[in-house]
Amino acid sequence: MIDILIVEDNKELADLLCDFLRAENYTVSVAENGEKALQLYQRYGARLLVLDVMLPGMDGFAVCAKIREESNTPILIVSAKTEKDDKLAGLLAGADDYIEKPYDIDIMLAKIAGIFKRRYAQDELVSGDLRLNKESRTVHKGEQEISVTAKEFELLLCLAENQGKVLNKDYLFREIWGSDSFSEQQTLTVHIKWLREKIEDDPKHPTRIQTVWGVGYKFV
Amino acid sequence: MIDILIVEDNKELADLLCDFLRAENYTVSVAENGEKALQLYQRYGARLLVLDVMLPGMDGFAVCAKIREESNTPILIVSAKTEKDDKLAGLLAGADDYIEKPYDIDIMLAKIAGIFKRRYAQDELVSGDLRLNKESRTVHKGEQEISVTAKEFELLLCLAENQGKVLNKDYLFREIWGSDSFSEQQTLTVHIKWLREKIEDDPKHPTRIQTVWGVGYKFV
DNA sequence: TTTCGGATTTAAGGATTCTTTAAGAATTGG
DNA sequence: CCAATTCTTAAAGAATCCTTAAATCCGAAA
Predict the structure, then answer these.
(1) pLDDT band, very low/low/confident/very high, at A38 (cuts 50, 70, 90)
(2) Domain of B17?
(3) Sign of CA dihedral A89, A94, A100, A102
(4) Cβ pair B162, A135 in contact under 8 A
């Protein structure tokens, strides 16, 4: 799944925006026309379309309509001032936001951030190439989904939410197993191991989940 | 979340509209100026703003801009004929609809109903090759209609409306059966099975309705 | 360097949770 | 009122996950 699919035939402009967005850790693809946009969308999916209405061939209106047939992926319309006509008004009903060309890049970024926040980010927790989503209870490492069990997820979440802090074993155990649990802390270390197997580049030499001798663990 | 936030300094007019809207079962709040509108909006959120451009203090343009910074909540602009100028044109780009004062209350209600329908009341829900229609309570998989029972439909709808989210069994059961006796959750799992038989390509290895161990189910 | 306590690893049950099946109860429609 | 459909319940079988325990490894202090 691509974060942002930019549909724009002005390569220079697209590249510029693309750079800015990548700097903010979005994954971005560019399509220079409507056909390619749909192709990319169907193949990979996207979390947001930044759609210029004025395109060679299939125009923005058609792309928007096509997308809307099968999903409610957010669409941010980009259009030149001169194109303000009836068609545009109709289009806006189906779109999630609108910006006029030429636009200020900061405003564009703010709008995009806003859409993401409203639509997706409410339950996402990102750290490096790791992405936890509380809602779907999924963990992604880069583009790839990592399947974790219930306890593993809770443990990772607890660590990630306290990024940088050292959490002692007692605390971790109580947090996840509950204070009234009879089982031993031994089980915690086993879960830590399994997590490391899954999220560390080199589980033998963990960097994300560090052990703090005599105390507990730290997520970085 | 408020359904409709009316921003209007003419109290009489606001109350009138408010009454009509409440009669149609919308939840309504009134703000007599821009500051209060933003305050209410930030506090509670709203599904639609009915925004008079001519306000004491912060005007409609500013309110609209502020709202648009953080969301794409539909905005219905209300303005007197005499105010038609450039600024208004710019505003309309960010708005979803427009009505001139003095307006006919029925037309206003129709516009509001239209916005709600377009934006919120989609009665078709599409996901992949699956299509649910809330109105006719039918399910299509590709071209073919799948006959589902009442409970099955509700269950599928509930899952599909929360696509990607993990719904725990308690929640699902309460949502559909309306109570939460634990032993009876068995019945939920049975319905899940039947749904899978009907909508999954390979019911033995479900992909649409995924089980999340120790938690519940997730529709993807 | 040695020692010791803590940390890691491994694998095998044990426990829990999910799936499946089927029978009978409840509901609906003719 | 009967028949057909739908729903609930229960129980056995599967799948998955968790815990335990024992062996091993490692870091810090003497």
Answers:
(1) very high
(2) 2-119
(3) negative
(4) no
Interface test with B, best of A101, A111, A136 (most B CBs within 10 A): A136
Please tell me whether residues A90 and A110 are part of one structural domain: yes
- The C-alpha angle with vertex A35 and arms to A29 and A38, in degrees rounded to 5, equals 60
Cα separation, B191 vs B151, in Å, equals 8
The DSSP code for B50 is E
Write down the pTM of the prediction.
0.63
One domain, residues B6 and B112: yes
- Give me the CA A214–C1' C5 separation in Å, rounded: 9
In which residue are the tokens 């806003």 written?
A114
Number of separate domains in chain B: 2
pLDDT tens sequence across B161-194: 888 899 999 889 988 887 656 557 889 999 999 9
Question: Is residue B98 located within the same domain as residue B160?
Answer: no
Residues A115, A164, single domain; the answer is no
Whether residue B190 sits in one domain with residue B174 = yes
Mapped onto helix, strand or coil, the DSSP state of residue B64 is: helix
